[in-house]
Amino acid sequence: MGLNKMKQKKITIKDVAQLSGVSITTVSNILNQNTDRFTEATIQKVLAARDQLSYEPDYLAQRMVMKKSQTIGVLVPDVNNPFFSQLIKGIETILYEHQFVTLLCNADQDEAKETQYLKELERRGVDGYIIASSMVTNTAIDEIIRRKNHPYIVIDQKQADAYSDAVLIDDWAGGQLAAQHLKDCGHERIAMIFPAHPTKNVNRRIEGFQSVYDTSQLIFIHADLSKQSGRFAAQQLIQTDATAVFAANDEIAFGLYLGLDELGKSVPKDYSIVGFDNIEMAEYVKPQLTTIAQPIFQLGQTTAQLLIERINQSDKERQTITLPVQLIERFSTAHLK
Fold first, then answer.
1. What distance in Å separates the CA atoms of residue 166 and residue 171, rounded to the nearest whole number?
2. What's the angle, vertex CA 218, arms to CA 213 and CA 224, rounded to 5?
3. Predicted confidence (pLDDT) at residue 160 exceeds the cutoff of 60
4. Among 44, 82, 170, 292, fewest CB within 10 Å belongs to which?
5. How far apart are CA 247 and CA 230, in angstroms?
6. Are 333 and 178 in contact (CB under 8 A)?
7. What is the SS3 string spanning the chain?
């Protein structure tokens, strides 16, 4: 068959085998990087035929042979939050190195949407799942993922269970560090701003904070983990006698900056503020935000690496890795005079 005639139809692995003078099985093995049994001359002959024909493997056929899709489903609650953008970047860096494609699902804090995404990812045959949202129910995980023995890993917001690996942040220590810093600055009345129904990781921050301060010294204000909610929370804050704030994340803290400014208050003159996350913008607001830094990029990388290890070794002992945090002291907190 002439080359021009072959170009008129879809090039197949059979065409590569004919041009290179080897079997279809040999071509399949070499193109799937199973090259141990072949000479360098045979490998180069197959690769040359592939390039000459501009052959591209059929994705579905390749998946049937390899029993893998080389794709990972990543489920996050809110891609607008810079925390998750940085997290995804860390995940994608490792997956790309291992030739996996990332399928990102942004669930908009919607439990039904998250469950539907899990079903769609399962239907598309992903090799594993990274779940960074606490809204996915254990029932959904059990029915869609675990019963079918799909590798998955929970991260940050989702509490680990007895069946999955997990990468967590030492949120309790972060809360304690924030509280001790404000204590050292002389603050005795603290407003804690966090969601009405906090996720487990946020609860651990609260518990760590309460290890330093007595409950009677704390004022609880509820707000979603967003700048808009932080802005509105400023109106409640100024009605209290608090002199300092521990915000559950940096996004709330940024919202507070604007809300307090609109009410004629300033940071840290009127209120000291400590955030949590240390997203990039913490250095660019004025005053620069004092916050608890968690290694977000490393969190993504560690999670992806752990999942790949689980895919390659399904019977490996389950792991829970906890990453450390640190206080980054900038200019949004001040000592009481």
1. 14
2. 120
3. no
4. 44
5. 8
6. no
7. CCHHHHCCCCCCHHHHHHHHCCCHHHHHHHHCCCCCCCCHHHHHHHHHHHHHHCCCCCHHHHHHHHCCCCEEEEEECCCCCHHHHHHHHHHHHHHHHCCCEEEEEECCCCHHHHHHHHHHHHHCCCCEEEECCCCCCHHHHHHHCHHHCCCEEEECCCCCCCCCEEEEECHHHHHHHHHHHHHHCCCCCEEEEECCCCCHHHHHHHHHHHCCCCHHHEEEEECCCCHHHHHHHHHHHCCCCCCEEEECCHHHHHHHHHHHHHCCCCCCCCCEEEEEECCHHHHCCCCCCEEEECCHHHHHHHHHHHHHHHHHCCCCCCCEEEECCEEECCCCCCCCC
Q: What is the pLDDT of residues 238-272, one digit of tens each?
A: 999 999 999 999 999 999 999 999 999 999 999 99
Tell me: pLDDT of 86 over 60: yes
Residue type, 126: V
Q: Which CATH architecture has domain 68-168+296-323?
A: 3-Layer(aba) Sandwich (3.40)
Say which CATH architecture domain 171-295 belongs to. Answer: 3-Layer(aba) Sandwich (3.40)
Start-end of CATH 1.10.260.40 domains in the chain: 3-65
Q: Classify strands 101-106 and 71-76 as parallel, antiparallel or unpaired.
A: parallel
> In terms of pTM, does the model score above 0.90?
no
CA–CA distance, 197 with 195 (Å, rounded to integer): 5
Whole-number Å distance between alpha carbons of 291 and 174: 9
Phi, psi of 154, deg, nearest 5: -100, 150
For the 3-65 domain, the top CATH level (class) is mainly alpha
